[in-house]
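Sequence in, structure out. Go.
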Amino acid sequence: MNGLEKKYGLFTAIAMVVGVVIGSGVFFKADDVLMLTEGNLILALVAWAAGAFSMIFGALVFAEFAQRIEKANGIVDYTEAAYGKRAGYLVGWFNWILYFSPLSAILAWVSSMYTMILLGRENPANSSATWVLAGVYLFLIYVLNSIAPKLAGDFQVGTTVIKLVPLFAIGIIGVFNGLANGVTMDNFATAANSLGSKGGTLASAVVATAFAYEGWIIAITINNEIKDSKKNLPKALTMGTFIVFVVYIMYFMGIAGVLPTEQIVLQGDNAVSIAGTMLFGKMAASVLTGFVVISCLGTLNGLVLSNIRLPYSLAIRGQGPIPKKLSIVNKTFHMPLRGALFSGTVSFLYLALWNASLNEVFGRFIGLDEIPIVMVYGLYFMLYIWYMRNFKDLNFSKRFIKPAFAMLGSLTILYGGITNPSIGLYLLISLGVLVFGLIFYRRESDVS
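Output:
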C-alpha cells in the first residue's frame, strides 16, 4: 500500500462543493418554493435563507473538524475520532453502499434523460436509449476518475464554471429586467400584502430548499488529496457554500424579475424555459437544457470522484471487503484501481435497481435517492453534539452558536425525511445495510 498523492488545489475543492450541490434541481426549485409559500416572494426568500443554514453553518463546523483531523475521507475520520473505529467504519460503509453509489447511478440516469430531452426523443425518462446512455456516462466517468484523476479534477472545475453561466445570466439580467419593468416591485408588494396569512406554509418550503442545498459534504472525501488540506479544505467549505447560497438567491430573484410569482407557480417547471425565452430568445430553452446536461455530468463526476475513494479509505484501516487488495494504489495512475472497480460495479448494480424501481418490478417505486437522507443528517447531528462537548478551546460563538444553527438545519431536513410516508421502509433498508456491513468489520485490523 502507498498513499494517495496531493493533487488537488483550492479551486478543485471549491468546485467539489459548488459543482455537486448545484445539479439539475436548482433549475426547477423556484416554482416549488413559491408554490409552497402560496406565491409569496418574501416568504420564499426567507425559506431559501433558512434552508441555507444547514449548509453554511454545517460547513463552518466541518471546516473546524478539517483543521484538526486528517487521514483519509473526512466524514470517516471525524466519526472515528468522535465515536470510535466501529462507528467510523459504519459511516464509511453506509456512505459507500447506500449513499454515493446509488446517487451516482441516479445522476447518470438524470444526465442521460436530459440529453434525450435535448435531442427531442420520446419517453426520455424510461426509453432503452436513455438507459444505454446512462450506462455509457457512468462507465466513462468512472474510467476518467480512475486513470486520469487530475483531468477529472479539471473536469469538475470546468463543469462548475459552465453551469454557473446560465444561473448568473438569468440572475443578473432578470434582476435588472425586473427592476426596470416593475415586475420585481409588484411581486414584493403583493407578498407584503398577504404576508400575515401565509406563514403556515414556510416550514414545508424550508424543507424543499434544504434538499436543494444537499451535497456540500462530499468535498471532504478528498481531504487527504488536497494540497495543504488543513488550510484549503476549510476555505473551500466556507467559500463554496457561500457561493451556492448567493447563486441560488440571484437565480431565484432573476426568475421573479421576469414573471409574476403567480405565473411561476402556474407554469411550474416550464417557468424556467419561459423566463429564459423572454430574456434570451427562442433558442434559450434548448441552450438551457444543454447547460442542465453539463450541470448533471459535473455533479455525477463529483459523486464518482468521491465514491471510488470510499472503499480505499476503509481498506487502509484494514476494514471492508478484501482490504489488502482494495488498499493498493496503482503506481502508474496513482489511484486505487481495484477500489474504483469495486465502486463502479456497485453503482451499475444500483442503475439496474433504479430501472427496476421506475418500472415497479418490486410492485412499487422505491426512492433510492431518499433512503440515506435521514441517517446521514442524523449522523451530522451527532457530530455537532460531539463538537460542542469536546472543542473546549473555542470561544462561545464558535463552540455553541455555529453548531446550534447547523443542528437546526439538520432538524429541518430530518423533519422532511421523517414525514415521508415510506420512511419506515427506508430506515429498515438502511439498518439492514449497516448490519450487513458488520460482516466485514474486524476488531483488530492491520494492512501492510
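Check: The chain has 19 helices and no strands. The mean pLDDT is 85.
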